[in-house]
Amino acid sequence: MNAPTKMNEVLPATVEFKLDQQTIHAFEGESILKAAKRHGVDIPHLCYKDGLRADGNCRACVVEIKGERTLAPSCCRNATAGMEVLLKTPRVEKSQKMVLEMLLSDMPDTGYKWNDAGATSASSGTAVAAGKSGADFALAHEAPGLPADAAVPEASANHPGQHGELSYWADRLDVTVRPALKSLRREQPKADVSHPAMAVNLDACIQCNRCVRACREEQVNDVIGYALRGSHSEIVFDLNDPMGDSTCVACGECVQACPTGALMPKTHIGSQVVDKKVDSVCPFCGVGCLLTYNVKDNVIVSVDGRDGPANHNRLCVKGRFGFDYAANPQRLTVPLIRKEGVPKDPALLDNLNRNTADWSDVFREATWEEALAYSAGTLKRLRDTHGKKALAGFGSAKGSNEEAYLFQKLVRTGFGSNNVDHCTRLCHASSVAALLEGVGSGAVSNQVNDVQHSELIFVIGSNPTANHPVAATWMKNASKQGAKIVLADPRITDIGKHAWRTLQFKPDTDVAMLNALIHVVIEEGLADQDFIAKRANNFEALRENVKGYSPEAMEPICGIPAQTLREVARAFAKAKSAMILWGMGVSQHVHGTDNARCLIALVTVTGQIGKPGSGLHPLRGQNNVQGASDAGLIPMMFPNYQRVDNKAVHSWFEKFWDTKLDDRPGYTVVEIMHKALADDSDPHKVRGMYIMGENPAMSDPDLNHARHALASLEHMVVQDIFMTETAWLADVVLPATAWPEKNGTVSNTDRMVQLGKKAIDPPGQAMPDLWIIQQIAKRMGLNWNYQGDMDGVAAVYEEMRQAMSTAISGITWERLQRESSVTYPCLSAEDPGAPTVFIDRFATTDGRVNLVPADIIPANERPDAEFPFVLITGRQLEHWHTGSMTRRAVVLDAIEPMATASMCGEDLSLLGLEAGDVVTVQSRRGEVAIHVRRDDGTPRGAVFIPFAYYEAAANLMTNAALDPFGKIPEFKYCAVAIRRGGKPQAVPGYGTAKLAA
To answer: Could you tell me if 807 and 789 are in contact, meaning their C-beta atoms sit under 8 angstroms apart?
Structure first.
């Protein structure tokens, strides 16, 4: 479907032409096919799909143009002024029918049908894959290119089998396949079901090349190709490998593009006919892809990408195949209360197996009334007995804006303090601190797909192909169009394949390298002096500070040749537009704020901000970490980043909420853990916590310390959808709703407020998070009553909109219902939103950027003889955060089932190791036994471990040392030792990961 036209959107000029004697208008450069479609005229087509480059190879869309000898493919022929196009002539109809008949004659006699034996095709009569017992899974393709109300026909004499768009158009044109053509049918290739997510049935392939264009041109994964010639031509994966053995990253773009079912999702449960389609937003990373859930019998059976402004139909493996976690049998369905006498033992988590652990050994079922009364009553007692600092709350970046807003309001008005935080403290807190200080705003200056206007794209401390895959496609698209990508990272990741220059600097030397770049810009006279004079403060201090940071002086420190540093600095400064995108590799250090200060300084001295294709973009991690922060789910800020210790702001919120509020910043995530272990004599000791959708027992640094702190609380209430590691240490566990089970808004990394709608009902007694928050509030004495549209979500949103009036006042609930996605700042109903900000002034008091010089501050913990390696942690493509959702998604866990530690081949050789061996990685705080994986992008002396695996929890080893400004832990650097051997925790039912690079 096409995105709705935005307010004040400038449309291109039009040309007038005739279509079957009807005069219509086409946009300049628009094809005949697209113009006809906009005017409600359907032209048969197969190789064409919205979003892909028109190819014109199937010839199903041919039309007659008056005065021309040959028929023209309407998908790649642009309409011109005065053109006369004919659709209903005998010549056109005969040609279209011939194309469809010839293609249909090669099709298998039936579509594919899953049964207990597997998928069978009448043409081959053989099972092609193992099925799922007791279920009937039809895999016939749903034909995404068809009109929304189009019904794909059942098998008939005219078109045997169900073959998506081909069958649809054959039915529309009443095409009959002659027996003579059937007798010439090609030899049917065998099905390939080697991939966990997708089935390949090339007997249904019409070689339209949509999959090739989707893979190579849209996603730029370069896996699918078109091999050989003539009657031998075929679609291949890599060097004609089985799909499951290829380099496919399972984005599913090919499945969405395929018109016949030659490529299909194995997860498409049930018949082609679904009960409903519900538009929503992807629940994983911060890119914020819009999608559509296809629902049958209250189960999501498949997901389609939607034409949203952040993704334009694209999805990644998590967005397309990671949806079934919501239907996992381990979902929490009833409230639970810890059994009397059962201690909170952190050691329980050491050998916890999520697949087999039985909560009934620790908890008993309770009614909602009992669980809520116990939860709120005990929290209220602790507050009234020990003071308002005795309580704290962790909200969630995976919930909605409305939930984040109401949660922080509960803590501030009900608990009575600002002790509220969420996972931003563990990802981009230092980036936000530097941005607020420097440019006056904690959000991005330019959106990700603005890289299409960039001459140079500087990616630092980020692995976008794994962490933000759809965002990475825009970077790869830009590279193909001539943009230069510079990858700066201790690890060389997949985006490095597209990089013009790679700066593989030594871990922990970000400031040294960035100051060297700034040094070159200033000392070689490349600085934008006009921009600096008009729009920057403190430039002279910056100039003085970087004098000692020449590339020659920094080369031995950061490991990058001086000439390369100079070359990159010159290219960045001279580019018409240069954009910096960064991730947690920049922020998760004790000097994370200084790292971001250097990035701000680099774009400022070069004037690369406040214009298209330039600026600063911290790629936000979780789907709503931007929105949760905007909504005030942080301890030092009210909604919209208004400081709690600002008297005017504090007074405004006291009046707005009609409640006396704490005027001192609260404790952050790690500080709350320290306060939970404080002596009883400490008046600010944290004794009770309410945790919604966070899993600090897996995500916090130095997990042994964090788990001990959580277990030491007098009372902990956990609200979640699964028994997380944190939930096992709770006193009460409240069953909540997964993202597809709720209504609400989220804000993505691009500052887009986007609406998600409820697609399925929650299981058992699980209740909406917004309802649970209000029930807790009610029992703590707050008189809240949010009612109305979407179970009160709209009422909460409208209150939040008032609290954030300088950002989203123009984004009404009604507008979101109409447009789905609106970019802020947006201050009026007529305001289209601002994709690019800081065009004329920064959001600081005086409108100028504040430059802050930074010097080298070493990591809190350095390698030594006892612990000679550096541990780097992070995410990976298939799994998300602590894995509580993605490792319960069948396809995702099948692709990447096992925890691995990545090391380069040289280090493996020096240690006498091979890929697949078991090692024990140990820091001063903890250790894990884990299989090793060869990855030559990991530098010598370093090991990379993802933190999604509870059986090899990387954060048992990480360091809780904090950045003094952002209060973020140093996840990205600690000293470890690696020794051969150990006993990895067994996880029954999990497969084997690919351990070679």
So the answer is: no
Closest CA to 546 of 523, 570, 571, 573: 523
The pLDDT score that the predictor gives to residue 113 is: 40
* Radius of gyration of the chain measured on its C-alpha atoms: 29
Q: Yes or no: say if 786 and 792 are a contact pair by the CB < 8 Å rule.
A: yes
Is residue 481 packed enough to be buried (19+ CB in 10 Å), middle (13-18) or exposed (0-12)?
A: exposed
Average pLDDT over residues 926-948: 96
Query: Given pLDDT bands bounded at 50, 70 and 90, which one contains residue 271?
Result: low
The DSSP letter of residue 360 is G
Q: How far is CA 587 from CA 108, 256, 602, 963, in A?
A: 54, 36, 16, 9
Are 931 and 924 in contact by the 8 Å Cβ rule? The answer is no
CB 856 within 8 A of CB 839: no
Q: How confident is the model at residue 111 (pLDDT cuts 50, 70, 90)?
A: low
State the average pLDDT for the chain: 91
Banded pLDDT at 790 (limits 50, 70, 90): confident
Cβ pair 526, 606 in contact under 8 A: yes
Residue 587: helix, strand or coil by DSSP? Answer: helix
Confidence of residue 428 (pLDDT cuts 50, 70, 90): confident
How distant is the alpha carbon of residue 989 from its chain centre?
A: 27
For residue 407, the surrounding DSSP H or E stretch is helix 401-410
531, 607 contact by CB (below 8 A): yes
- Residues 170, 104: contact at Cβ < 8 Å? yes
Q: Report d(CA 323, CA 333) in Å as an integer.
A: 18
- The enclosing H or E element of 901 equals strand 900-903
Pairing type for strands 615-618 and 391-394 reads: unpaired
**Does pLDDT of 118 surpass 60?**
no
Name the helix (H) or strand (E) containing 21.
Answer: none
User: Could you report the per-residue pLDDT of 583-612, keeping only the tens digit for each?
Assistant: 999 999 999 999 999 999 999 999 999 999
Q: How far is CA 660 from CA 412, 635, 877, in A?
A: 9, 16, 45
All residues at 6 or more sequence positions from 876 whose CB lies less than 8 Å from its CB, including other chains: 466, 896, 946, 948
As separate numbers, helices (DSSP H) first and strands (DSSP E) second, the chain gives: 30, 41
SS3 at position 537: strand
Question: Mean per-residue pLDDT for 317-327?
Answer: 95
* Residue 592: strand, helix, or coil: helix
Residue 127 clears pLDDT 60, i.e. is over it: no
Extract the tokens encoding 133.
Answer: 């017992």
* Model confidence band, residue 122 (pLDDT cutoffs 50, 70, 90): very low
Average pLDDT over residues 551-580: 98
Reply yes or no: is the peptide bond before residue 825 cis, omega within 30 of 0: yes
Q: What is the pLDDT of residues 956-996, one digit of tens each?
A: 999 999 999 989 999 999 999 999 999 998 765 443 445 55
Cα–Cα distance for residue pair 662/665, rounded to 1 Å: 8
Distances (CA, A) of 424 to 309, 460, 516, 622: 24, 19, 29, 9
Distances (CA, A) of 772 to 384, 388, 733, 777: 22, 21, 12, 9
Cα torsion 569, 571, 576, 577: sign: negative
